[in-house]
């Protein structure tokens, strides 16, 4: 498949360089991820900052509440279909802080008291191997799903090692497939064959740190003997294989997808005579295969064929294989201006779409007949976020998650062909939501665009501008911010009278590709203007005022926080900067930065650099500004964004004489937490800080 969302996949290696590093940066030493001097800086800042938060009498209670929520045994398991009758999930709780991979039957799960069998106990494995293992998932061979490639990360890094596991014996396969630590892309061809891209030789990766050579590996072969199938370019982001199967597990096609940047992908078909490029736009995503049809979404207009960005289209796979350079597509769904396709899944015979309308979800089941596709809307709760958790290839059943800000999340079993979905489980309430209400407002951005946002507030809130308010946003990579049950926010913030706001700014996917494309590269300031418009609208509505308004964002959202800090510090009194991008002039040589030029632009290109210079937080920090005391968080093991961004932000603030707080988790990866205890600690630090800044 095409590259997954930024928040879940993109990673890089800090040793690779897309462009020469600046030579005049006194803080460049902080880019050495495990350098002694860099770690000394991080440890010193931790030692200075943590007591300011952990000695607050509220911290212990916040930590206990956050840990109780994170480790609750009555939360909904994230189960998914496997094989013909199994459900599997990865579960963490107070006893299993690293987690267990486990399995049960659908019948047992529906009983309300499921009996799970443990497949892998990650806590026990980490102890026995003296390793800081973090679960990265498993890829299993259909249709039995018995043999699985299990991915284990050291401390939460994106790079991971891969081992073959037998779910029947409950053991790693002796002499089975094994891949050393890398950011590998792989797929099963059959039980004795993998198609994969990995770091075949040291340094043989793209400038973004991903594989660009795909080979076929047979069971028992050393990596050095694998047969090359396709070679991209070191300037690419990544090259990855995808295997399309019918419900019986038979291979129908093998695709090799070459991501030339984060959003542009060449789609290639593996044939008996080699690899052939498909006649598809580069801004398109292969979404699935069902009923002989290849389903594709478009992130740009396909003018030659009469299709528009946001369309969902399909092809006869047999015709694709016969004439890969002359494709003929049909339209499945064209969203309206207020809609966006958030998710696409396939069952044995149905195509299923999670569709959002003004950021409120629904699920449509499509059936193909002689006249094309027709759809039926599933009977699920309204005014919620609705996601397809898992879809079965063996029948037409699906597991669907439903969530909203104040209603506890629920899990449903649905049949895509007929019938009313069955409610399986509901999360117990984690906070008292009876006093709160949710509203949706629209702010007007600098260019006149209407930008929606959700406000979760006390019903009896006085509109006097005095409410402690936390505003969250992301604004990038077509990642949507939809309503979700705010368990930790509810307990640590809403119950204490706070207001919580989610902004659906451009750069996200709330209104499809057009909403994302509007904020790319030269138009990046639109994303930030949207955020400032929402901030001012909250103040104009007298919900809050700048002394009571705090903001939070992570990763790309951490960059947003840096822009807000440096461009409009007068609007905010608290800024939580989570695992951020910050040095946008140097970002292409830090971490996976080279892979994101499709989003931000390339500082090596003068026109794009000129725009980046207008907002790059690291370069725009200067003395004498009304910056609030910020909280900056990162992780030493974050090999995606890289801790250098946060470190350099802290170092520059220190040089300029500003007060700030800093926390670097020595493990944890891009999530800044390697286990549930660390996650609870991070959340407790954040809400202690927010309370100090906005409630005291």
From TrEMBL:
GO terms for molecular function: oligopeptidase activity; serine-type endopeptidase activity. Pfam families: Peptidase_S9, Peptidase_S9_N. SUPFAM superfamilies: alpha/beta-Hydrolases, Peptidase/esterase 'gauge' domain. Residues 492-693 form the Peptidase S9 prolyl oligopeptidase catalytic domain. Coiled coil: none annotated. InterPro entries: AB_hydrolase_fold, Pept_S9A_N, Peptidase_S9_cat, Peptidase_S9A, Prolyl_oligopep/macrocyclase. Residues 23-426 form the Peptidase S9A N-terminal domain. Residues 1-23 form the signal peptide. This is S9 family peptidase. It comes from Phenylobacterium hankyongense.
